[in-house]
Amino acid sequence: MCHVIVTCRSMLWTLLSIVVAFAELIAFMSADWLIGKAKPSSSEEGDNRTGGSQEPYHPTLGIYGRCTKISHMQLSRRDTLCGPYAETFSEIASGFWQATAIFLAVGIMILCTVAFVSVFTMCVQSIMKKSIFNVCGLLQGIAGLFLILGLILYPAGWGCQKAISYCGHYASAYKLGDCSLGWAFYTAIGGTVLTFICAVFSAQAEIATSSDKVQEEIEEGKSLICLL
């Protein structure tokens, strides 16, 4: 008989697992890892025609994507264009960023798998006499290690030509130059920290779903068990 077991700790672990997976995925796909030095948003000629003043903008650069502004025929109008600068893996600007992409991709794939499995832990708590919570927690710990490796290698690529074009000639490995870190980098770090928190908290989720109170509810014949 299938028992649906829902506890506060197991639900919290499930929600955190889903949030972490999405946060890391969104950060990886974003172009807001580096915020470049300010550039004028319109030319002096365009300003003279419109009577406006120059408003600088900051182009952004990600692991494989970028955001910048492109001008139309009317020099007074510019739109932000975001998209991948690398059409193939080999075109990623730095070998360090290629390694970063691999490590982050592997970590995110593991996190997405765990997030998918975590939804079904309400109905299935073990497979082959092994707790799903413990297995998922172990996988989250492994994913966290991959994420850490990717984040450590990422700053080593700041000396590539692509980063220098955004951050100035003073940019080099682990030195930002005229750039600053964008929200995607901080999101990736925060997601990595939460990944390890999820890995530790999975043990609490397992304890909550196998507690004496749950066993008492099962012995009473209940199929839906909700405990605080």
Describe the protein.
The chain is of the alpha+beta class and 228 residues long. It has a single domain (4-35, 90-225), classed as Butyryl-CoA Dehydrogenase, subunit A, domain 3 (Up-down Bundle). It has seven helices and eleven strands. The chain has a five-stranded antiparallel beta sheet. A two-stranded parallel sheet has the order 1-11. The longest helix has 27 residues, at 183-209. It starts with a strand and ends with a strand. Residues 42-53 and 73-77 have low confidence and may be disordered. This is LHPL2 protein. Belongs to the LHFP family. InterPro entries: LHFPL. Keywords: Fertilization, Membrane, Transmembrane, Transmembrane helix.
CATH architecture annotation name = Up-down Bundle
Question: Roughly what percent helix?
Answer: 40-55%
- The amount of beta strand, in percent, is 15-25%
Number of helices: 7
Could you tell me the CATH topology label.
Butyryl-CoA Dehydrogenase, subunit A, domain 3
Strand order of the largest sheet: 7-6-5-2-10
Major β-sheet annotation? 5 strands, antiparallel
Q: Which class best fits the helix and strand makeup? A: alpha+beta
What number of domains? 1
The top level CATH class name: Mainly Alpha
Protein name: LHPL2 protein
Keywords: Fertilization, Membrane, Transmembrane, Transmembrane helix
Transmembrane segments: 12-35, 96-120, 132-154, 183-203
Subcellular location: Membrane
Describe this structure in a few short sentences.
The protein is α+β, with helices and mostly antiparallel strands. The chain contains seven helices and eleven strands. It has a single domain, classed as Butyryl-CoA Dehydrogenase, subunit A, domain 3.
